[in-house]
Design goal:
Layout lengths: L1 E2 L7 H5 L2 H7 L14 E2 L1 H23 L7 H13 L3 H6 L7 H20 L4 H19 L4 H10 L9 H6 L1 H7 L5 H6 L2 E5 L4 H5 L4 E3 L2 E5 L4 H26 L3 H10 L21 H7 L3 H13 L4 H14 L3 H13 L5 H7 L1 H7 L14 H6 L11 H4 L2 H10 L4 H12 L3 H13 L10 H11 L25 H4 L10 H30 L24 H8 L1
Parallel strand pairs: 1-2
Antiparallel strand pairs: 3-5, 4-5
Helix pairs in contact: 3-4, 3-6, 3-7, 3-14, 7-13, 15-16, 23-24, 24-25
């Protein structure tokens, strides 16, 4: 595989001609037998690799949740996750075989991304095992969407040498088929295609008594034909990874490609959290929010800082970027860390000299002025920590007994704490975090936890403090769901209706403009007050962090309304 600085966007330019593309990838279910010879830019290579990695991680999460990918429920859950992640082309490949332009484009992405990831996952036995497991799940997911005719096309286009039994051959063994294929009715069996294969090729079907055995051969229905192909596909994957391993030293001569491969397995593939777009969070609310909406890793950081008034660099980076992403301003962040550290052993002069610069740097106001993103779960999990550190993933670094005690102190029952600890003990740290969320919020998660700020956002939506995003309705006829947050204060005065008539519309918009005008005047007045020096002993001065009220509930929606 060769890499150039410029990407050729058209598939025919990548492969030379459409006929070559059709020959190399003749079906939506690919076997990845022949490596592609194409030119790719580094940018496109990285994009393709991360897209496929998203797919494989979605499958991993579904499997860890004990979802059966062969069931309608499991398939629907996975497809919803893929669509939500912008991976509709992969969903298309899992819904039968077609030859439209969209299918050809999807096949190209699927094929190229597979071979890119082979280089990233051929290095160790652990990586190879993970990659093969996930790829086999994707293969079975795609194959399960094929119709009997699609299966015939698959066998024919890959020249596998199998052909369905003729009506005469089927009639000779029909009694055996009826007796051994208990999952289908007689009528279904008569209309289904069956294939004759060596029984050693389908030992899983033999073990599950899902095929008819006769004279050393197994007669397999089309819906179970995946068992035959899966064994061959897995062997292709294993051989292919070994071949890529031999090529790896040569490929890694390109430093850019080597860096991508090194970081790919731990790359974050979810939403990018840099600065909150939902409004500012006052630091006086952090104590309450930490109990309500923080994931365990951030709650431990917050509690430790509030009790010890000090935190090492790793913890400051992990927690500081999290605070920035939930909506804490740089000014409030400086005040928060200053008041905490100076309550400990750090003098004000030392704080300004050693710590204030780093906080401004995280907000992109110093140094290279990079707007740093908050740490994702994968980065936190893979970070090395010492016993004195407060950062890292508690589900990974804490002993089961310590974790169980901490969860119990947060209000989880013994049974619930044991359930969460069970996931963590088996290495499913993000699943454990998701289960902790479900138990503490008494709800069911529709997506896996991949980022602390995602956890915070979902928590705020669940407790009703932050409304989920709603797609705007028709511009000419505004609905309550499409109004700005500033209309929330007048919702309670409306009757149970979904749309507004012309009079209501005018009245509401006049009210909204009035509210916005008052808010702007209030902000202007407040800014003038802030410029004036406050008298000594003024009761209007901001409270130090030591005087925050833990028992005062805090509603993020009110802050967001104030911002508008």
């Amino acid at each position: 595989m060769e890499f150039s600085r410029r990407s050729r966007l058209r598939p025919e330019a990548q492969f030379g001609m459409d006929s070559v593309l059709d020959w190399l990838i003749p079906h939506n279910v690919a076997l990845y037998a022949i490596p592609p010879m194409v030119d790719l830019s580094i940018t496109e290579l990285q994009s393709l690799a991360l897209e496929r990695l998203k797919v494989l991680r979605i499958l991993e999460q579904a499997t860890n949740k004990n979802l059966k990918l062969s069931s309608d429920e499991g398939r629907e859950t996975v497809f919803n996750e893929m669509n939500h992640a912008g991976l509709k082309h992969y969903v298309r490949l899992c819904q039968g075989n077609h030859s439209k332009d969209q299918d050809l484009a999807a096949r190209r992405k699927d094929y190229l991304s597979h071979f890119i990831l082979r280089f990233a996952y051929c290095g160790t036995e652990e990586l190879r095992r993970w990659f093969i497991t996930r790829e086999m799940e994707l293969f079975r997911l795609k194959f399960a969407g094929l119709s009997p005719q699609d299966v015939k096309d698959f066998v024919m286009k890959y020249e596998m040498g199998y052909s369905p039994l003729t009506a005469e051959q089927k009639s000779e063994i029909k009694d055996g088929l009826y007796d051994s294929t208990i999952y289908h009715s007689v009528m279904q069996i008569e209309s289904m295609d069956f294939y004759k294969v060596r029984f050693t090729d389908v030992l899983d079907l033999v073990r599950g008594r899902r095929c008819y055995l006769r004279a050393g051969f197994a007669y397999v229905c089309a819906s179970d034909f995946v068992s035959i192909i899966a064994n061959k596909h897995q062997q292709l994957l294993e051989d292919g990874l070994q071949a890529h391993l031999r090529l790896l030293p040569e490929v890694e001569n390109d430093e850019r490609f080597a860096m991508i491969l090194k970081e790919l397995h731990t790359s974050y593939t979810g939403k990018d959290y840099r600065v909150s777009k939902t409004g500012q969070i006052p630091i006086e609310s952090l104590d309450q929010l930490s109990k309500k909406s923080y994931p365990l890793c951030m709650r431990y950081c917050h509690d430790t800082l509030r009790s010890k008034h000090h935190m090492k660099h790793g913890g400051r980076m992990q927690y500081g970027l999290f605070l920035k992403a939930i909506g804490v301003t740089m000014e409030d962040s400086l005040r928060f860390w200053r008041e905490e550290f100076t309550r400990g052993t750090v003098t004000l002069e030392k704080f300004e000299k050693e710590h204030a610069y780093n906080i401004r740097h995280n907000y992109g106001k110093e140094g290279s002025r990079i707007n740093y993103a908050a740490y994702n779960c994968m980065k936190i999990i893979t970070t090395n920590v010492s016993p004195q550190d407060t950062h890292g993933c508690p589900f990974k670094i804490w002993e089961p007994s310590v974790l169980k005690t901490k969860l119990s102190s947060f209000g989880l029952s013994a049974a619930h704490a044991e359930e969460v600890v069970g996931f963590a003990s088996r290495g499913h740290y993000q699943i454990a975090c998701g289960k902790y969320f479900e138990i503490s919020h008494n709800t069911k998660l529709e997506e896996g936890i991949t980022h602390p700020n995602q956890y915070f956002d979902l928590s705020q939506i669940t407790v009703g403090a932050r409304a989920p995003k709603v797609k705007p309705q028709n511009q000419n006829r505004r609905t309550f769901g499409s109004q700005d947050t500033s209309l929330a204060s007048v919702r309670s005065t409306q009757q149970d209706t979904t749309t507004m008539n012309a009079d209501d519309d005018t009245e509401l918009w006049e009210l909204m403009e009035s509210n916005e005008k008052e808010a702007k005047e209030g902000i202007k007045h407040e800014s003038l007050l802030l410029k004036q020096p406050e008298p000594a002993g003024s009761t209007q001065a901001k409270k130090p962090t030591s005087e925050w009220g833990d028992d005062e509930d805090f509603d993020v929606s009110q802050v967001e309304m104030d911002q508008n």
